[in-house]
Amino acid sequence: MKKMRLFLYFSLALMVLFPLASCGKEPTNIRVAEVTRSIFYAPQYVALEKGFFEEEGLSVDLKTTWGGDKTMTTLLSDGADVALVGSETSIYVYARGASDPVINFAQLTQTDGTFLVAREEQPNFKWEDLKDSTFLGQRKGGMPQMVGEYVLKQKGINPQNDLNLIQNVEFANIPNAFASGTGDYVQLFEPTASIFEREGKGHIVASFGTESGHVPYTVFMAKDSFMNENKADMEKFTRALYKAQKWVEDHSAGEIADIIQPYFEDTEIELIETVVDRYKSQGSYALDPILDQEEWNNLKNIMDASGELPEDVEHSTLVNTKIAEKIMNE
Q1: Which 8-state DSSP code applies to residue 26?
Q2: Which fold has domain 28-111+215-328?
Q3: What is the pLDDT of residue 14?
Q4: Which residues in the chain land under pLDDT 70?
Q5: Same CATH topology for 28-111+215-328 and 114-212?
Q6: Which pLDDT belongs to residue 24?
Q7: What pTM was computed for the model?
């Protein structure tokens, strides 16, 4: 009888311990470097907060690297597995003869995310009003600057000849420079543009996103070697992103703001909602992860117009759409 009780106790112990030992392997950690922290990237934060990455067996370690050059350096030096940054950076790396090129595999935003902010109110703003003004632009060679110059040229303004163009201010310091009195106009991301408007430091007069058309503005990318060695994880990552993109498309700006607020603790929920609504209404959030040929060509046209296209790189060389297409067809 005693032996029987010992056997039962032992069996019960195994029943308790076995599920703990077989509840699944640890999630795969993916280190992501984002070029900045922005409401512009709302679908990424939705994917994190809604647990879409966890559903795919991934643990995402997100860090902000503040600037395209720093983000790409982090990726190339193996400080991150995936980078969220403008596609132009992958072209720059390829043109320098990289033996392990950076591949764009999932698009997050499909328009420029900046707004033209004037120091004074201009209810009847016309683009020609910029002529002979001091324009505080973005870092030379980056997507904001190139799109900005592209739009200005489309409006009949030569940035180098018709403006006093300032481009030597670090990305993170541009808002402070304008707030301290530098420039008549500035190109800003949200929520800074709306904050400045609320505080009377500036006034939004135009959107570069609505003027420039679809472009692969912010894209998830990884080194070719990493993608080849981690194909299953790249599919899982893209699937989680696509879930978030559909969620963002189907929910209101207020619902999205509630989800992503933890990433913007110093920003009022009402302001987050305003910014999300602005980006949604102008179609900035990509509805799916595919970076198509037309968007890639528009990117190259913008870079070429700014004199920043080092090489005419084909879409098939630096863009992988097979992963996204597979996910969307499931």
Answers
A1: P
A2: D-Maltodextrin-Binding Protein; domain 2 (3.40.190)
A3: 39
A4: 1-24
A5: yes
A6: 61
A7: 0.88
